[in-house]
Amino acid sequence: MVMSLELLEYPACPLCGLNQPKPESPYQFSPYQVVECGGCGLWYLSPRLKEAEILKIYANSDYFKGGGAHGYAQTQGSYLEQATGLRLTFRQLLKKIRQQGLLGEDLLEIGCGYGFLLAEAKPFCQRLSATDFDAEAVARVRETGVTVYLGGVDALPEGQQFDTVISTGVIEHIYNPHEFLQRLKPHLKPNAWVILAAPPMNSFWLKLQGKNWASFKIPEHVVYYDKNTLKQLFVMNGAVETRYIPYSQAYPLGMIAEKLGVVVPRWVQGWNIWLPATMFAMAGRFTT
C-alpha cells in the first residue's frame, strides 16, 4: 500500500520542542522512521501520520479484534485473546501502586480498552470511571457498571475530579503529551497521582531485537519514552513528586513465539509467560 505524502507530517520533538533530530536513525520503517531528539534524547516518530488520520484507526472496532493492518493484528495477539495475561499484568501493577499508597477511591483510566484493569481495580476503589475512543469497547465496559466516556480527556465532564488516574500503553500514542497532561490537570484532586505506563525505549529487548522490537508499533506509537524522558514530561507539567514503577508483563506463549518467528505446539500457545522489562510506569503527584 502506497502512503500519500499528504497524510504525513514532520513534527518537532514532542517533549522539548526542538526540531533537530539526530541524523541517520537506525530505525527505518519506510515512509516512517523513529528519530532521536538532538536536545533532550527523546525518541519519536518522524514523519508520522497526521493526528486526524490516526484517530480514524482508533475509532475502528477492529483495532482490538486482531487480524487487521493496525492494532492487535497478530494471530495470537487480539486484545480478548490476551485477556488472562492482561489481567495478571494489571493485578501485579495495581499491587505495586497500592503498596506505594498511590491508589485512591476515585479512579479514572484513560484508554480502558475492554476494562481488564478496571475489573482488577474494582475491589480497591469506591468509584471507577474511564475513557476510550472505541465505541464497542466503551459499550462493553459500561455493561460492567463503570462510567465510561467515548473519547479522550476532553470527553470528561467539566468539574469531575479524581485522586488517581492510570493510563497504560497510551502515552506512546499521544501526539502532544504536554497538552494531554494540561487538559487532565483540571480533573485532578489536590495531591492526585497520575500513573503513565509505556514500553521502555532503553530496554534490553530493543537491544536484542533491533528494528523487530515488538513495541515499534508503526504508525500508532509516535513517542518512545524511557524513565528519564517520562519523568521530564511530568516535571515540565508541574508534578511535585515522581515515582518509578518497573513491572513485568504476562503474554500468551503463542504471541511470544509469533513475535520471535518460532513455532510452538498449539496446546501450549495459551500459556502465559512473564517477560521482564517490557513495560514500566512513572507516577507523578500534582498539588493543583
- Bin the strand percentage: 25-35%
Low-confidence stretches: none
* Percentage of residues assigned to helices: 25-40%
Radius of gyration: 18 Å
Number of helices: 8
Q: What is the tally of beta strands?
A: 13
Taken together, the total number of domains comes to 1
Secondary-structure-derived class: alpha/beta
The CATH homologous superfamily is termed Vaccinia Virus protein VP39
CATH class: Alpha Beta
Name of the CATH architecture: 3-Layer(aba) Sandwich
Biggest sheet strand line-up: 8-7-6-9-10-13-12
Mean pLDDT: 93
Order of helices and strands: EEEEEHHEHEHEEHEHEHEHE
Distance between the termini: 47 Å
Shape: globular
Indicate the CATH topology: Rossmann fold
Tell me the major beta sheet.
Answer: 7 strands, mixed
Pfam families: Methyltransf_23
GO molecular function: methyltransferase activity
Protein name: Methyltransferase family protein
InterPro entries: SAM-dependent_MTases_sf
